[in-house]
Structures are given as structure tokens and as C-alpha cells.
Amino acid sequence: DAITSATPLDYLKTHLKLNQSLSEISQAPIFGVYGAKGGEVVTGAYLLGGLYLMQQRIISWHLPTAFLGTLSVISLIFYVANPEQFASPLFHLTSGASLLCAFFIITDPVSGPTTPRGKLYFAAGVGVLTYLIRVYGGYPDGVAFAVLIMNMCVPLIDAHTQPRVFGHEK
């Protein structure tokens, strides 16, 4: 594992700390066209499975859209600011557990928020925290920590996004 590196995110993070540029790092054999070589098939399967779940209305569109949109926007901002230091949005979407999180982890109905607006806030928070942990944290992929941290915020999110009950004062 020390020689082959577990994931492209780990490889990227390690070599950026060694002051290599992103263009040098992306030439490594571990990288495919968009993310990890071989991982592109798995990423496609996650995407197809998630779209199927949305089409069947098993999961709502709020969580995956807000998570992937937030992760894309924040990574695009950093990528545009310095493309030699920060990976592209497509890399962040197709590597690590991004699509797994978007369609299969944060859509868990038991620990997530109950209102549509709360789902948007929750997923956006997971997206921001995932990116910040990936780029500045000690772990290559921040999905697990981001979900756990935002799960602690769910009662607060639900309290502030519940619609007002008619006939009662706040």
C-alpha cells in the first residue's frame, strides 16, 4: 500500500505536499481519464444506480444535487484560482466516495433532515466539509467525517427549517 497508494486522492495529497505540480502528478499510472484508473467503471455504476433510485422516487433529488453541486462549485472556485495546486471538479466528483455518498450514504432517511430545505442545507454542508477535509485535512477523503459532523447538526437544521404550524405563535 505504501508503494501503490490506496486511492488517487491519497496519491494526489501526498505528492502535492512534496511540491509537485498537478500536471506532473496527473501523469502517474494510477490516474485514468477522470479519476482512478479502473475506478471510472465503479463511478459510472454508482451514477447509474443513483439516477435509477431518483427516477424510481426512492430517494429525493435534494440531497444528491445539493451535495454534488456544492462539491463542484467549491472545487471549481479553488481550481480556477490555482489549477496547479487544486484538482478539477471532475476529479473530485469521480474519485473517492463522492458519488457513493451522494446517492447511497447521505440519502439515509433515518439520520438525515426531514424537510426539503433542510436536506439542501445538510447536503451542502457535507459537500463543503468533504472538500475542506480532502484539501486541508489529514485524511485523503473526507466523506465519512463530513457526514458524521453534519449528522450532529440535523436536529438544529430540522428545528430551523420546519414549516410554521398555522394557529400557533412561535
How would you describe this structure to a colleague?
This protein is mainly alpha-helical and 170 residues long. The chain has helices at residues 8-17, 22-25, 39-55, 62-81, 89-94, 98-105, 116-136, 143-161. Helix 7 runs antiparallel to helix 8 (143-161). It is elongated, with a radius of gyration of 18 Å. The N and C termini lie far apart (56 Å).
Task: State mean pLDDT (0 to 100 scale).
Answer: 87
Helix residue percentage: 55-70%
Q: How many helices?
A: 8
Tell me the overall shape: elongated
Please give the number of β-strands: 0
What structural category characterises the helix and strand content?
mainly alpha
Keywords:
mainly alpha; 170 residues; elongated
Task: Please give the structural blueprint.
Elements: H1 8-17, H2 22-25, H3 39-55, H4 62-81, H5 89-94, H6 98-105, H7 116-136, H8 143-161
Helix pairs in contact: 3-6, 4-6, 4-7, 7-8
Outline of this structure?
With 170 residues, this protein is an all-alpha fold.
